[in-house]
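In practice, a research group might receive sequence data for several interacting partners and want a quick structural hypothesis before committing to experiments. The following worked case mirrors that situation: the sequences arrive first, and a predicted assembly follows.
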Amino acid sequence: MMLIHCPYCGERRPEIEFAYAGEAHVARPVDPSAYTDEEWERFLFIRANPRGRHNERWRHIHGCGRFFNAVRDTVTDKFETTYKAGEPRK
Amino acid sequence: MSDLLLRNEPDCAGFAGEGAGVAIRLAEPMARYSLRARDAQVLEDLIGLAVPRAIGATLGDMACLGPDGWLLCASVGTVLPSGSDLPVAITDVSERAVRLLVEGPRAGEVLMAGCPIDLDRFAVGRATRTVFETVEIVVWRLRDDAFAVEVWRSFAPWLRLALVHAAG
Ligand SMILES: [Zn+2]
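A structural hypothesis for the assembly, expressed as tokens:
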């Protein structure tokens, strides 16, 4: 079983304790009522979907409960690093 | 609040199970509180109990499960203030879970039949949320040869059966 490092628990934990939560660093609209349909489409549906290095959100749902960010390679499934929510992109 | 509700305790008889070197039984009913706060000090000042700061640590009846979340498992009748004007969330969850006690020299081994954590290296006094197969549990190591397993009550009969099978 793959182990994932939780930056809040400070240790590597079994992957089945975690849930994937999509691409990281997708900024929410500052003024939602001013958003056009195209801007809403981009915010809600358009993702980078890279082959390789991907910044993504994970949640330690069956552990400490926190969301955090990770850099994972979408080809090899290898985690490069994980970091706390709110920290700059790595 | 919960004294207005009808308590519906699971049937303790028939819940015990045994294998060589391990015994599984249902613990007595407890008062359980979920406590959330960004600042542990605010919580501590409000409830008058020491709050463990490190995730996984326990202090008395309280376990720190996350960076802003704690679980208190105390004797029935324990009542905490609600902290209604403070940035905390204190919720009575007494009826949400039941506690299975897994005791004996093979307790860790039997739990590891479905729990992916290395319980051989899980110190006495440590507690964490994790899973048994796909069922969420809280594991709390009470002694070298005794674990408390908090599980949502509807999963408890299945978990008990799985543990008894692992023990047999
Ligand atoms: Zn965690």
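Before designing any experiment, note the following. The two ends of chain A are 25 Å apart (CA to CA). The longest helix of chain A spans residues 37-45.
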